[in-house]
Amino acid sequence: MTIISPLKREKKGVSVKILITGGAGYIGSHLVKQLGEESDHEITVLDNLSTGFRDSVLYGEFIQADLSDFDKIDKIVKEGNFDAVIHFAASLVVPESVTDPLKYYLNNTANTANLIRSCIKHKVNRFIFSSTAAVYGEKKGEEIKVKENDYLSPLNPYGMSKLMSETILKDAAKAHKDFKFVILRYFNVAGAAIDGKIGQKTKDSTVLIKVCAETAAGKRDRMYIFGNDYPTPDGTCIRDYIHVEDLCYAHTKALEYLNEGGESDVFNCGYGRGYSVKEVVDTMKRVSGNDFEVRIKERRAGDPSAVIANANKIRNVLGWNPRYNDLDLICKTAYEWEMKNALAMSA
């Protein structure tokens, strides 16, 4: 594994005013940090702090508000005179979406529709939407890498709530020709900032690498693998893992693309390489040096056996070149973040 220092890119391009919803969350806060360090954009962060953390927002103006407060959101969009919106705010726990689907359709879909309406009303004509690979569902056939134009069939309400939001966004753009969007379909996001300043603080996370890192750091007594009877080489689910800093760079490239007059489009954000749950667990054990306890439980509802990105389009169209495509590095930054916070809490 090669240790890579944070990349400082030359600040370039026009400076714009950006509203980032959910910017105190895991991915949003990393993007705020990246934009604050590498651009001259004027950043406003909006978050209700239900799952985000105020101290993770290192740059920009902060507004605490909930997207369900339609009148307040409309006023913020109107008075902000924004050039672009980057929309992260959403509920994203797949098992919870199965047991409480209305929460996901209201928070993810209805709130997104209202935000889009406010943007169009107040002529905020550049919109970057945080979507998910969950819109694809189960890939059939020999080729398991999903492409942006593949058939979409979510297996859970979380994925469906995002697909519905994508549809609303596309239909709105057809009706309002000046309104342009980029939809970024995330695969499995993990890791922490390379410089260690921020990381994933989500409480009771169900994200595999986060759970592995917490267990390796002694914050959990054990962890569980949900199902070892999938039709994969070792029986556990296969996913495409992407470092959070590379994902954030995809957002900066999408913003640059829209600023330069790019047309509305959809892009996968992944590396095109899948790892099984067991492979991830073994990697975390190796990089942490801790042989933590792992137990097998029954499958979770809504989990497809394998989802891997075909990411050629984002490389070719946006010129996105990931820098941290290394599972050891992703696991190492996640583990070091957990250890850093464990030490801070005990001090």
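That was protein one. Protein two is written in the same sequence-then-structure order:
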Amino acid sequence: MTTLTSPDDLLIAVPFLVGYHPENSLVLISLCDGNIGMAMRIDFPRDADPEQMDSLASHLVREKADAAMVVAYLPNEISDCEYLMAPLTEAIEMRDIAVREFLQVHQLRWRSMICSDKSCCPPEGSPLPDINNSRVAAEQVLKGRRLPYLDLEHLKDSMAAFPPNEKLKRKIGKVAKIDYESTEVLEKQREGALAVTDLFHQFRTLGSCSDEGLIALVLVRLQDLQVRDYAMGITDPEKIELLASMWHWLVKTAPEGYVAPVATLLAAISYENGEGAFAARALDRAFEDDLTYPLAKLLRRVFAAGWPPESFAQMRADLHPKICATLFAD
């Protein structure tokens, strides 16, 4: 995330951090040595539940944060969030974490709850900044990040399936499944890993793939755990945005019964990229396809525990060479 130098910058950054323009939300952002970490969003609390405030603050500890920023997006019927400010600030500061900013947004106006200078923070608030004329937004787009969705519903709709592709379904039906009792298991797994790589190369060039045979092979082989974990491991900082776009496209392309592996790959890469809301919606898609999919269950626990994205990335990076050694051993 880019450098934030003002409340306007923070208000522009939040939609990029959570993936959409939040409403009726409380957003908590971790900082470490001035760098922005994870953004945590919950539905706007109607009361200051001490356990909930304590839980939010504990996530900052797991993020190894030394400071935090809070943005409260109030429902129309609530005009002030002061009842939340004291208990949440206390829960954060008792962990030796400083609260750098606490903004309140209500009916398209914002004000700082910790600034007493009326010349910059008038009691009636200031208009929300225009995302279309923002340095922060321009920098995020140049880095390859998608523009925030209008709201949560639009984010959900972004993963809706494309119209059924009967040709793709026929191609899927022709792909031989892996017989784990045969001697060809490794050959089929290697075939799947190479297909994932081929798909990435085509997507990098064209922004999609029209080869239904290749798509079908990838979707069938991703049902194998080794191939799926290989696909998860090819992420690196240079191509994370492109891979995220590819898995997003493939989630919408995959027919029923083949969505869960792709959706968990999208969830993992989105979480690693700091897009928590997008990762959560991708998990929803996985569960819609397969309620029992083990990796989706594991990722849900990881997300709920507030694992730092870099820890998840390190675990993936440590696992990938071992998978490659198994798949491509001579």
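Strands lie at 25-32, 35-43, 67-73, 98-106, 109-112, 126-127. Keep this in mind for the problem set.
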